Amino acid sequence: MKSFFQKQTEECQVHGGHAKKANGALLVMVFASLALIIWHVWVYGTSGKVVKFENSSNSFPLLIVNEIWDLLFNKRGVVPELWEVFPYFIVGILLAGYLRTYKIAVKLQASLRKYGVLSIFIASFVGIITPLCACGTLTTAISLLFAGLPLAPVMSLMITSSLLSPSTYLVTLNDLGPEWTVIRTIAALFMGVFAGLVTQFLRTRGFETKNLFIEGAITRGDFHDEDYPDERLRCNCKQKFGNRVAVRTDNKFLIFLAKSSEMLWMVGKYIIVGVVMGAIVERYMPTGWVYRFFGQKDPLNIVWVTMVSVPMFLHQLSASSILAHVKGALDGTLDGGAALAFMIGGPVTAVPTMILFWTIFKKRVFALYMFVCLGGTILIAYTFQAFVFVPGVDTGNELLRGVSQLSGGKSAVLAKQGSNVRMVMDPGGKGLIATFRNELDGQGGVVFDAGYERFLAASSDMHDNRKYFVNAAKWLRDNSDAQARPDILVYDISSGRHEVLSKMALADFDRAGFKVKIVKKGDAEKITSASLANYGQLWLVFSGDSRLADSEFKAVSQFNGDGKGMLIVAGAGSQAAEPLMGVNQLSAKYGVTFSGNADSRGEISVGMASRIFANASEVLGKFLKIVHKA
Question: Which Pfam families match (predicted)?
Fold first, then answer.
């Protein structure tokens, strides 16, 4: 048994000893990170507070200890991040061990090579259904490259694996909706194909498989198998634990465990250092620098966000959750191109991946990887910006699901003032539709729409208005008290000169399970808490300066406070004194104000591909759930 763990004393004549340059580079990074922490605490104090240490009651060494402890163990610290990456890393190690034990890499090499350029597309697809991030995929990729597989399909596999997996798909579906999920899937596939084709084009220009690795990094000391296609690596020495086990037993499971264990520290050290550095960069980089780029309609936002995402250790599972929070922080709608650049550029340039590439591969391979990551991110983000995303539209919002166009016309302008408000549409920078959610206080959801004319019976059947109405009812149902009834009371407080909601719109509500009753102010008594008790939603239609009576205002406030949903509609303001004060008396409670005038003319584009994305998402969701369970 002792011989299993005792290394060969003589140096392998084929591979030589382990190179010390890689470990030295890692130590430099560790000391540089520690120096950054010390400098930050000296200048700004702990946890980013602008308080110099001499003003604190604690000693400077104790402040350093507290800062490092918080860096390691807070919710977004190093240890939780390592715990999140650990399962993917282990799966990658085990897959690599399996490949080496059963010589699968050689079989994959022959299989992919016979497909030529088509292997790039196959590898890209395999990458998005592989439950691995870049950290786990790298271990497998190295084994494939050692077996002689061309770099092009391996590059495609690494790119797509870092961008998407079955788990990430489902998380994105929850955070951002089906449209964003399909967009992310298509973008990941395009990135993989782009990376593979560029690499394939350069294959004879210094990117042959045998010329990829730094001498002494891995290829001359970490894998000693006797049947590698590359004769430089073919060796029968017993310097490695896996080979010593293989000589003494035919048990494939034991050999598999031994060969897998060889890679634990080899790759694990890069991941540990990479996570630490990524946490430090994210902790000390002002978040305002990133957030402000997601809402500004600057044509260069995609470039800036791509570049800023590079030093961030952004895991694919975290990107969609972060963007969901960014949406709520913006005064307007999210810049779709910048958001897509964030979801692509961050994960593919994760710090552990960069460290591994820089230390193991030759610098031209590192440069190629950075080029396809940055160039591909910018190219794909601008392509989607031009052909998919609609400016001023919150892509993937549930209110707009399956909606391609809404009727325009004259409207008021919404302004967001509360943190619980999310802008849904602001064409031309003028707020048109917004939502409010505050589950902590038990309030029901609220939808605000400044397009009064859209709700008139004469306009209800135009474009996709009816689909939008039903979506609004479903959103209010899902974001309100679960015990609320499905009945909707539409209270028309406008002038009464026009009917609201067409018969076909009412029929659509009925098919969706909602019973709608329309009441005009003046045709019935004032609404009270008792009269609202039988309804789960209240839709209030204002126009001009119409307003609720004081008793009605109290009843409506109590209705929403009990967890029931509301939709507040108002039209363009008048030139009279205190325009739209009636609706603002109510809407201001939720952090939204109506004011001014806007004219969207005949129609408002929401997204021509919205229905396609929604349908495709359902199909992909079912497929990836099966893969995830497997």
Answer: ArsP_1
CA 233/CA 209 separation, integer angstroms:
13
Residue type, 119: S
Q: Is residue 61 a contact partner of residue 228, using CB atoms and an 8 Å limit? A: no
What's the burial of 578, exposed, middle or buried (CB within 10 Å: 0-12/13-18/19+)? Answer: exposed
3-state class percentages of the chain: helix first, strand second, coil last, to nearest 5: 60, 10, 30
Q: Is 565 helix (H, G, I), strand (E, B) or coil?
A: strand
Count of CB atoms situated within 10 Å of the CB of 584: 21
In this structure, which amino acid lies at residue 530? A
At residue 115's C-alpha, the angle toward residues 112 and 120, to 5°, is 70
> In terms of Cα–Cα distance, which of 192, 197, 188 is closest to 343?
188
Number of CB atoms found within 10 A of residue 70's CB? 13
Q: What's the pLDDT tens digit per position in 96-112?
A: 677 667 766 555 555 66
User: Could you give the angle at the alpha carbon of 206 between the alpha carbons of 205 and 208, nearest 5°?
Assistant: 105
Which H/E stretch holds residue 407? Answer: strand 405-407
Gyration radius (Cα) of the chain, Å = 30
Q: Which two tokens stand for residue 8?
A: 């060969």
User: Which portions of the chain are predicted below pLDDT 50?
Assistant: 2-5, 7, 9, 11, 13-19, 48-54, 219-223, 229-230, 233, 575-577, 624, 627-630
Three-class SS state of 554: helix
Residues 464-475: tens digit of each pLDDT: 999 999 999 999
Q: Strand, helix or coil at 246? A: helix
